[in-house]
Amino acid sequence: MTLPRSSTCVKYLLFVFNLIFLITGIAVLTVGSVVQSHYTKYYDILDERFFSVPALLIATGIIILTISFFGCCGAVKEIHWMIITFSVLLILIFILELAAGIAGYILEDVTVEVVANGLNTSMNKYNKDFTTREMWEVVQKEFSCCGIYNSTDWKKVNGSGGLPYTCCTFKNTDFGNFTCMDGSDNVHKTGCLEAIGDFIVQNAVALGGVGIGIAFVQFLGIILACCLAHSIRKHYETV
Q: How many Cβ atoms are within 10 Å of 43's Cβ, its own excluded?
């Protein structure tokens, strides 16, 4: 039996929404994966809260890719139970993404404290643990920073003016002279707390924006799915 024209319009709107829904799933999965890969390099200075948000987005993206099947098939074939299943799963995804978005913004407020504690703890292990030493080298090189607040922080580790070579910028004209000392002109002036803090905050805002933004787009899908399910049920009850 053919649905009324208004319901048919909702049916095709829901189908188009599912295509957009599929794209948002790919976007959520991509953002979560990229941020997770960035955070992994700084595992020693971040706690589990910072890994839970991108992990939640990755899981959400995978679920989105799966349940879009129910939406597409349910809309095209006008299968009531599929649309209901899609609606319920969409509500679940809506809650998860809203939670991820809110958590992302909350993490923005605790970033400096967490990073400062992580940097302090790891700096004390610099000469004892190879993984920690490697992490500091990556951080100082990638962010062009030195120490926690500045280069003088390394005095409590090295006990002298000597710095890790990644604290300095070397030119091709330096040839074999790669000595990095506190007070040298080529020492990075920015502390790693400031550099990493800004980086983490930017990612937290991105995660929050993606989570909340896509959640409200999907709210439209919930409305469309519920309307179509109601129309299908009502139509077949009167046949």
A: 14
Asked if 29 contacts 57 with a C-beta cutoff of 8 angstroms, the reply is yes
> What is the model's pTM?
0.66
Whether the per-residue pLDDT at 60 is higher than 50: the answer is: yes
Q: 24 is written with which tokens? A: 């948002």
Residue whose entry in the numeric block shows the structure tokens 């091709």 = 172
Number of independent structural domains in the chain: 1
Give the phi and the psi of residue 127 in degrees, each rounded to 5. -90, 0
Residue closest to 82 by CA, chosen among 11, 2, 16 = 11
C-alpha 51/C-alpha 195 separation (Å) is: 19
String of DSSP letters for 118-144 = HHHHHHHTTTT-HHHHHHHHHHHHHHT
17-26, 162-171, 193-202: lowest mean pLDDT where? 17-26
Read off the pLDDT of residues 155-173 as tens digits, 9 standing for 90 and up: 888 766 678 888 888 775 5
CB 94 within 8 A of CB 219: yes
Instruction: Say how far apart CA 151 and CA 149 lie, in whole Å.
Output: 7
SS3 3: coil
Question: What distance in Å separates the CA atoms of residue 52 and residue 111, rounded to the nearest whole number?
Answer: 14
Mean pLDDT over 125-132 rounds to 86
Write out the two tokens for 31.
């953002």
| Alpha-carbon span 148 to 45, nearest angstrom | 11
